[in-house]
Amino acid sequence: MFDKLKLAAQAMSPANIKRGIELSRQSMANGGRLTEEQMAGWTPEQRQQYEASMAQAQANMAAMADKMIADEMARRVVHGPAGDWLYGPLPDREGLTDLSMLGHWQSAQAGFLDTLRNPFGRKAPPPPPPRPPVSADRDQQLAAERAVRDEARTPYLAPHRIPVVRTRITTNPKSHVKDLAGWLGAAGLSARPDLVYGVYRVPDHITGGFGIRKASVVEWEVVHAAQPGMPPSPPAFVAGFSARDRWAARRPGEPSILDEDLGLDYLRAAGLGPERCLGVARLVDVDATSGDSESGGTYVMVGVTGLVVFHPVEHGGGAHAQLQSQRPLQVLPAPDVHIAVLNWSDVRRVVNPRPDHRIIVPSPFPHLPATGGELLEAYLGIVGVRPQDCYSAQVTCDQPMNILGGGQFVTTTSTESEPAADGQSRPRFRGGSRIVVAYRDSADYVEGRERWAAYQREALRTTLENRVAVREPVEKQSKLDRGVLGAVLKVADVVDTVVTGEAVDEPFKGLPTHRYCWPPVQ
User: In sequence order, what are the beta bridge partners of 19?
Assistant: First the structure.
């Protein structure tokens, strides 16, 4: 006992403490490795064992660092400086694999100082300075940036592509689907579905008057290859499907379905190919309130509540009634159809970080498309999709989300206005999170998708297929299911509401996460 106390006293002597500190400093200065002085007297076997242990530790740290970086890259949609601005810098591999205590101490010190500067979380680096503006005029600057992007896109375009025309119209919020069907007839397009890529409800909230709750108009965009002046034809036929209804049979753990899967099932039942389809379109709804300055609660929720399919009125017959009588259906992905789902949301957050404001001009990242419509056009042109092969071409949404991101008190007076399709300037909240293109596949399109992958990698520096949640497994309990709060509606009433496009007061009440296949079958 006395000997142990004596040894402890010797170890705690000022001379030995000073010696220990000096050895630690030498080790830190030596990259975390022991010095020759510390290893004096070691046998060759001991040195060999030490070197092997250090090499294994270095390899383990390198593997862990590579996994962390790979996981972060797999999460990212936008790469390069734009990605660093949006998500923050990538993990530092050199720092993660540094065995020295000095390196870790310096890293921890830098992190502590950053926390003091930014107590509410790490801030992304500022974007690089934009290119010198071509013009002080906003529209001219936008056109100049678009011209540069078009030039960069040219080497990737399909050799025999068909020109893409996007025509936007305004409709009545209470009857917008019916209004679009009528417009397709008046424009002569309902008689020429072979010239139509698709249609989509523009996922923006356009307000008017006081407050942000009510929409003044609803815009639809028609993507086509037609020339003006075609003779009018009858209005298009519309088949509607509510996301609250169980159209597909799914057990817990099985893949859910895409909206477009159900639309394709309907078209097969009706005996219609893409050349007889005017568009499979997700039905986008908006629920918005400005709250008040005291209680807050401002939100603009945008999400999908159903599906509509447009085709010529003389086709289809009783296909919808037939499917309804056979519910729940199997609804499997069509083997001869490719459905591309791209993440527009992250790109939009870069070029338009405030949904209640217009896009930033000049753009800090001018290589990225300014709008979802531009990105959709790029996909069609590079892959070379022909309208007679196309079932759906949309800038749309997925799950309901507050596009304001929370924490904002927004009014119509603080929201920037923009001309709608009818030329009238109105306050606009800009939404949209997905680009969806569904088309009959072929060998030409396989080559086209290779060009698209190269364009993403080299020009856009994006991986737009990341984080799009395609056919995720059905859960035991839907995240958005409201239980007893869910609306109990008759199928006929729901279908009528979807087909006419009639607005409802609480569009997302009772809406399941897994559309068209909830609740699961047992």
Answer: none
Query: Which pLDDT score, from 0 to 100, does residue 489 have?
Result: 35
Q: What angle do CA 126, 132, 136 make, to 5 degrees?
A: 110
C-alpha to C-alpha distances, 314 to 142, 191, 310, 328, 442, nearest whole angstrom: 43, 10, 12, 27, 28
Whether the CB-CB separation of 285 and 174 falls below 8 Å is answered with no
CA dihedral 409→410→411→417, nearest 10 degrees, is 160
CA-based angle 138:141:145, to the nearest 5?
140
DSSP 315-372: S-TTHHHHHHHTPSB-----TTEEEEEEE-HHHHHHH-S-TTSPPPSS-SSTTS-SSH
Question: Per the structure block, which two tokens stand in for 411?
Answer: 């009014």
- For residue range 94-134, list pLDDT tens digits in order: 666 665 544 554 554 455 445 444 544 455 556 666 667 88
Task: State the pTM of this model.
Answer: 0.82
Non-local (6+) Cβ contacts of 269 within 8 A are 319, 322, 323
CA atoms within 13 A on the CB side of 254: 15
Q: Which two tokens stand for residue 68?
A: 């962390």
Neighbours of 147 (CB within 10 A): 11
Q: How many Cβ atoms are within 10 Å of 456's Cβ, its own excluded?
A: 20
Query: What is the spatial distance between Cα 382 and Cα 169, in angstroms, rounded to a whole number?
Result: 26
Q: Which residues of the chain have pLDDT under 50?
A: 5, 28, 101-102, 105, 108-109, 112-113, 115-117, 119-121, 295, 407, 409, 478-495, 497
HSE value, Cβ hemisphere, 13 Å, CA-based, for 334 = 23
| Cα distances (Å, whole numbers) of residue 296 to 211, 299, 403, 411, 415 | 14, 9, 16, 11, 16
pLDDT computed for residue 115 by the predictor: 45
Give me the residue label for tokens 């078009």. 150
List the one residue out of 183, 186, 264 whose CA is nearest residue 222: 183
> Helix, strand, or coil here: 389?
helix
Query: Is the Cβ–Cβ distance between 398 and 434 less than 8 Å?
Result: yes
Phi, psi at residue 239, to the nearest 5°? -110, 130
pLDDT at 330: 96
Distances (CA, A) of 180 to 172, 186, 221, 288, 473: 10, 10, 9, 23, 34
- Each residue's pLDDT tens digit, 52-63: 888 887 788 778
In which element (H, E) is residue 46 found?
helix 44-75
Place of tokens 């942000």: 212
pLDDT of res. 67: 81
